[in-house]
Amino acid sequence: MSVEDFTNKTYDYVICGGGTAGLVIAARLTEDPNVTVAVLEAGGNGLNDLLIDGPNLFTQLWGKPQYDWDYKTIPQEGTDGRTHGWIRGKVLGGSSAVNFNMFSMASKQDLDNWAELGNKGWGFDDMVQYYRKFETYHPSSETLAEKINDKYLDKSLRGTSGPIHICFPDTDLAWVQDVWPKTMMNAGYKPTRDPRTGSAIGGFNQLNTIDPKHNRRSYAARDYYEPNADRSNLSVLTHALVSKIELEKTGSDARATGVQFIVDGTTHTVKANKEVIVCGGSINSPQILELSGIGSPVVLEKAGVEVIADLPSVGENLNDHTASIIALGVKDEYPTAEALTRNPEIMQQALDAYINHKAGPFVGAPTATGFASLEKIQPDFPDAEQHIQSLVAEHAKKYPDGDLAGRDQLLARQLLDPKEAACQMVALPTGGNMENVHIPSKLFNSEDDGMWCIIAACSTRSLSRGSVHINTTDPNAHPTIDPAYFKHPLDADIMARAILHAINFTEFEPLKSVLRRDADGGLVVSKNSGGVLPKTIDEAKKFLRTNTATEYHPIGTCTMLPKDKGGVVDNQLKVYGTSNVRVVDASIFPLHVQGNIVSLVYAIAEKGADMIKGKKAA
C-alpha cells in the first residue's frame, strides 16, 4: 500500500508496531468487518524469506538491518564493562521472526504474582485459555516421540486450532536432543510434567514454534497476518517509523487523535478514531511514549520533548534474562555447528537439503532445556532463606523504593519454592565466543579447533532492573538501554550457584562420554571461557562477569501495575494519563517469568484483543 492510500483512509484503531503482539491484535480486531485497523511497521515484509522460514537459520538474521534493530546496551558494570548486542526483530512479525523458535511456559506462580500485585484477571488460571487460543499443537509420531522423549506433554492441555503451530519437527535429531534428557535423569532429575500444568522442574526437550507441514517457522506474520492480509478493513504499511502519537489534552487526561510516522524521510499522519495501540516491544514502546510526551519530566525535558502526561515509570523496570555460558569441547563424532561454518561445501549441502526437501540440520531448532529449583541446584543450603532475605534487604537499603522491595519479596519467596525454577538450563550443539557479546552474529561458534557445545545457566526471574530512555527528539536514534546486569547481589549469587550446578552435569552419562578430555583427563574448556571452570561461589561470580550474555527476553518498561506502585498501564492495558492509548507487548510484564517469552506475548495479545473488543473473560 502506498503512503497516500494509507493516509487517505480513516481508521478506528492505529497499531504502532507490526510485530508479535501487533499482528495478533490486528488480526483479531479485523474479524469484525465493521472495524478498521491500520498497522505501522518500521521494518519490511519478510514473508517467504528463506532465512526467516528456516527454523535453524536464525543466527543469519542477526545484525542485518532488514531484520534486526541491532540495539546495543550501555557498558555494563556487572559484566566487566561490556556492551551487549540486543537482537530485536525489525520486520513484520517482530522478534517472533528472528528468535530461537523455543517455546516455554510461564509457571503458575509467575502469573499469580501479577494478580497479587493488583492486576486482577492476569493470574495463571485467567491466562491458560489464551495460551490454548493461539496455538495448534502437533503431536509427534510414535517414532519421533520415542527419540525426543516427549511423554511429559499432555495433549489435553494444548490448543488444537490456533494460528501458531507448535511441534517437534520430524527431522534428523541433533545428538544433544538424545543426550540431554538422559543426562538430566541420571543427574537425579525426575521426569517433568507438562509445563502447562504450572510447573516445569526437570530436564527435557522443549517444543518449537515450527509448522510441521512445511517445516518452517510459525510466527506472527506468517500465521496471523498472511491469512488475513486481504481483509479490506486491515491496512499495513511497512518501512514506516512511528515518530510520535498525536495527543490533545482533555481535562486531566490526554486523548490520542492519530500517529505521526516517517517514510523515506518525510513525516505523515494517520488518524485514529477510537484508540492508538502501542505494540513496539520493551525498547520501542517506551521510546514511542516518551517521544509523544508521556513519561518522566526529567527525561522528557532533557531530550527536548514537551510533557503531555507526567508518568515517571515509563522506561523504568527494564528486566532481562541472562545466560551464563560454559563452552566445552566434544568428540569429533558428535558434529556441532562448527562442522557447517568451517566447511562451505557442507554448509551448501545443508542449505540445499532445506531449500529442496525441507530437511536437514536447518529444520531442527534448539530444544534441549530444563528448569532447576534452588533446592536442586544446592540441596545443602540450610540457611537459604536467611541468606536470600539478607541480600534483598541489602539491596533495598541502597535503592529505597517500597514497592520495588515488595516485588523483590515475591521473587525471593519464589526462589525458595521447590516447585519453582531458580534457573533454566539450555544445551546447544555449538561453541561460543563470549568476547563477542556486543556482536550477536559472532557470538556463537567457537574459534578454537574441534567440535564444541554450550551448557548455559540462564536466569528465570532476575531482580536487577534497568531502564530504556530517549535522549533526543529524533525517532531514528536508538534509546539508551541499561539492563543493569547483576546490579542486584542476589542475581549474581543465584547464577553463580547455577553455573556450578551446570558443571556437575559433565560427570553424568551419556554427556560425560561425549565430552573431550585433555591429557590429564580434564574437560576441554574454550579459551574464550577462560580455559578453566570455576570451583567455588566466588570463582563462579568472577566467571559470570566475562561469560554472560542476554537471552534476548527484555520486559517491564511499560509495566502493568497500579499507578501508585510504579505502573505505566492499568490492568486493561490503558496508559495512565490518557483516555485511549494502550500498550500490548512484553513491556507490560510487571515481573519476569521463566523461560522464553514469546508464548506469553501471544497470550497477552490475545487477551488484549478481547479487552479492546469489550469481551468478558471466559
UniProtKB/TrEMBL annotation:
Its cofactor is FAD. The keyword Zinc-finger does not apply. Gene3D superfamilies: FAD/NAD(P)-binding domain (3.50.50.60), Glucose Oxidase, domain 3 (3.30.560.10). It comes from the Eukaryota. Keywords: FAD, Flavoprotein. SUPFAM superfamilies: FAD-linked reductases, C-terminal domain (SSF54373), FAD/NAD(P)-binding domain (SSF51905). FAD binds at residues 91, 242. GO terms for molecular function: flavin adenine dinucleotide binding; oxidoreductase activity, acting on CH-OH group of donors. Residues 89-112, 281-295 form the Glucose-methanol-choline oxidoreductase N-terminal domain. PANTHER family: GLUCOSE-METHANOL-CHOLINE GMC OXIDOREDUCTASE, GLUCOSE-METHANOL-CHOLINE OXIDOREDUCTASE N-TERMINAL DOMAIN-CONTAINING PROTEIN-RELATED. Belongs to the GMC oxidoreductase family. This is GMC oxidoreductase. It comes from Cucurbitaria berberidis CBS 394.84.
